[in-house]
Design goal:
Elements lengths: L6 E4 L2 E4 L6 H10 L8 E3 L8 E5 L2 E10 L6 H14 L5 E10 L5 H18 L2 E9 L7 E11 L14 E5 L4 H10 L1 H7 L2 H9 L7 H10 L3 E4 L4 H13 L2 E5 L7 H9 L13 E5 L2 H10 L4 E8 L3 E5 L2 E4 L13
Parallel strand pairs: 6-7, 11-14
Antiparallel strand pairs: 1-2, 3-4, 4-5, 5-8, 6-8, 9-12, 9-13, 10-12, 11-13, 14-15
Helix pairs in contact: 2-3, 2-7, 4-5, 4-6, 4-9, 7-10
């Protein structure tokens, strides 16, 4: 795998690439600009950590925040689920959400209302209350931007971190990888996708957006016992594996043949020349646990697909492909931002 520089030199000027900051730059940014360390904070900001956890005595508050920037469709729905999924990656049920909407100057009140209707519909399904937020029209954006912060509560010490994977853990993923990316590409590039897919396949791709919540599996796995969890979002499976293992100071070995990827996802990714393992994958939870078989069994009982794809190791980051070891390097920008 070739590591592309984060900054590309173009006609004498440096330009940042679209998408999340790469692992090294983000780590440096956090380390240089986070000097206060409060004793109440049990899990704090860091690479691979989905949430921060603040202790309040008998209970602790789990907090996470994320925006939607990679698509213009279903942004209300996506904003709810990607943030609630973060809370679930701590093994905790989300209970409240704040919503910030930045609308472009050409937006209408109906446009904003549509986003809020989506948010209300999805929070109702999850029993999450909208507890605050901010809405404005601004020339600072050219399309709608939605950013949410979600809160959960649990007994002190219960919340799971992303950075505590242990050597020997089973690596588990739920549902199908790249579901969110598949649906986004089908939505945003309808004509191109319809040329390579049957009507049934195209509809299947669109419907994958309906399965992006991982709240149920996060809570179930938290009860059984996991060492770490991380919802697979921007950067795909390879990004999530890298972040968890770097944060935990461990390695991994996964088997490509065991990765759950739908045929329709493979077809779309081939059309756009992108890697499904580097495509945004909300709807899949990455878990590491000594009780992998028990977790898979319980999730299956609850009608949630789950697969053990490998093991946490003590050093290298490896994928087995056709009997060969492929060493995985630091993740690049999500392939959703690289389509042509």
């Amino acid at each position: 795998m070739i590591i592309r520089p984060f900054l590309e030199y173009i006609e004498g000027d440096f330009f940042m690439k679209i998408g999340k900051l790469n692992w090294t730059d983000l780590k440096n940014l956090i380390n240089r600009n986070n000097t206060v360390k409060r004793e109440e904070v049990r899990i704090r900001s860091g690479i691979g950590e989905d949430c921060s956890v603040v202790n309040f005595g008998d209970y602790e508050c789990v907090i996470s925040t994320d925006p939607i920037t990679g698509t213009t469709k279903d942004i209300g729905r996506l904003a709810v689920h990607i943030n609630c999924n973060d809370i679930a990656s701590s093994g905790v049920e989300p209970l409240g959400i704040t919503v910030t909407i930045l609308a472009p100057e050409d937006a209408t009140l109906e446009d904003i209302n549509k986003v809020m209707q989506e948010i209300n519909e999805e929070t109702t399904k999850l029993n999450v209350e909208i507890i605050g937020g901010h809405t404005e029209v601004t020339s600072a954006v050219t399309r709608m931007v939605v950013s949410c912060t979600v809160f959960g509560r649990c007994i002190s010490g219960k919340a799971v971190a992303s950075s505590t994977a242990e050597v020997g853990d089973d690596i588990i993923v739920t549902k199908y990888l790249a579901s969110e990316g598949t649906a986004i590409l089908a939505n945003d590039h309808k004509e191109r996708c319809e040329k390579i897919l049957t009507t049934s396949e195209y509809n299947e791709a669109l419907k994958m957006i309906n399965n992006i919540s991982v709240v149920k599996e996060g809570v179930i796995a938290g009860e059984i016992g996991v060492n770490s969890m991380h919802d697979i979002t921007e950067g795909g499976l390879l990004g999530a594996l890298w972040e968890v293992c770097e944060a935990s100071d461990v390695g991994f070995e996964v088997n490509y043949d065991k990765l759950p990827i739908k045929d329709v996802t493979k077809k779309i990714c081939k059309e756009f020349n992108i890697n499904p393992l580097k495509l945004i994958s909300s709807g899949s939870m990455l878990m590491t646990s000594k009780y992998g078989k028990d977790i898979v069994k319980e999730l299956n009982k609850n009608n949630i697909k789950a697969d053990i794809i490998g093991k946490i190791t003590d050093s290298n980051k490896v994928m087995m492909y056709n009997g060969e070891k492929i060493y995985i390097d630091a993740p690049e920008t999500d392939d959703l931002f690289n389509i042509k």
